[in-house]
Amino acid sequence: MAVVQFMVSLDLSVVNVGLPRIAAGLDFSAVGLTWVIHAYALTFGGLLLLGGKAADRYGRRRVLLLGLGLFGLASLAGGFAQEPGHLVAARAAQGAGAAALAPAALALLAATFPGGRARVRAFGVWSATNAAGGALGVLIGGLLTEYAGWRWVMFVNVPMAAGALALAWRGVPAGPPPSRGGRPDVLGAVLATAGMTLLVFGVVRTDRYAWTSPVTLATLAAAAALLAAFVRVERTTTREPLVRLGLLANRSVRGANAYNLLVGAAMAAAFYFLSLYLQRVLAIGPAPAGLMFLPLALAVVAGSVLAVKLGYRLPPRTLLVAGGLLTATGFAWFGLISPDGGFATDVLGPSVIAGVGFGLCLGPLVATATAGVASHETGTASGLLNSSRQIGASLGLAALGTAAHHRTGGTGTPETLNDGYALGLTLSAVLLVAAALVALTVPRRTGPPA
């Protein structure tokens, strides 16, 4: 499960450093380039609930293997993309594969370690590999882009997916007979994904159409209608709903997902801005830029290890608040970047602080989101958690990217780009402060003490 999560997390960040080369190679527009991120995050986030429900109904091992196969094939197709649309479609297919495998993997982990010190340790290992994949993805992406070409940020997933498939085939037991309730709610998945896609599309297009323009208002109204229809379908469907709305009555589940939405928004936007700052403002190549993310990667892993040790003594809520505030401090420091800055003055210090803070909250967040959930709903709860992260990532990148674009204006000089990226990083810090406040609503103890 750790290998699977490393691969999924890696793919969220491995393309970031390669974005400028991808834009040049496939002739993406400035705003269109963000859809390389959005396509993955939206299908991942929009279909995760369906993936979690499928894992509960059809068997977690079976859905895990299916997701790994789709993920590997989509990665191969993306590496051979010849047009912007080809790559965006491949990224969307990757997201669909990840939506199947991620909740199945997390549900297997939660079911195998239901409580106690073993659960703390298991989620610590999971969060460390999750953190390492996300942070090292930028380093690996930089090296591949510089020395092998941007297409290898897609090809790199193929051997990892094949290896994970072999490990899962041999190492994951079949488990108990899957639940055989009603058929999964495919209509709900379509409505949720379409509504979120329209919402992000409307926000992204505000660079061309003002917020008060008929085009933007109509797009956002259509998105709201689709999402409202999704809620209605979940309440009235005769099929098995994607998410039982009563699950959100659990304070731990509700608080963890709200926290995760804000953290996902902040982290996706910050990685995007920092990668572009290093390459477009400081004129650093992809490989050196990737190496400059290494302190952040190591700090996240260190924070995850520290969370395991502290998890034996402190309630998860305390770690969520501390991690959110520490990460916000690092991002606020990132917001002070300057056009004539450098690695030692503008990147190193905030990377260490933000990385440790992010690592601190990963394990406790997952443990909180699955605490008190019935065993037959752990796949759904896991899918809900992953979904909130990906939806947050897409919405955060859309909103903060648009704000940064407006601050930059029509001229793309290092000075104006720096102003836009600095604003985006500062707003990311604000989102993390809000996440820390949300964590205060989570019960002090979300499960049996270790």
How is this structure best described in words?
The chain has 450 residues and is mainly α. It has helices at 2-13, 19-26, 35-58, 60-79, 84-112, 116-147, 152-155, 157-171, 186-204, 214-236, 251-281, 286-291, 294-311, 316-334, 343-369, 378-408, 414-439. Helix content is 76%, strand content 0%.
Quick tags:
globular; 450 residues; mainly alpha
In short:
The protein has 450 residues and is mainly alpha-helical. Helix content is 76%, strand content 0%.
Strand content: under 5%
What low-confidence regions span 5 or more consecutive residues with pLDDT below 50? 446-450
Cα separation of the termini:
22 Å
* N to C succession of SSEs: HHHHHHHHHHHHHHHHH
Topology:
Elements: H1 2-13, H2 19-26, H3 35-58, H4 60-79, H5 84-112, H6 116-147, H7 152-155, H8 157-171, H9 186-204, H10 214-236, H11 251-281, H12 286-291, H13 294-311, H14 316-334, H15 343-369, H16 378-408, H17 414-439
Helix pairs in contact: 1-6, 1-8, 3-4, 3-5, 3-9, 3-16, 4-5, 4-8, 5-16, 6-13, 6-15, 9-10, 9-16, 11-15, 11-16, 11-17, 13-15, 14-15, 14-17, 16-17
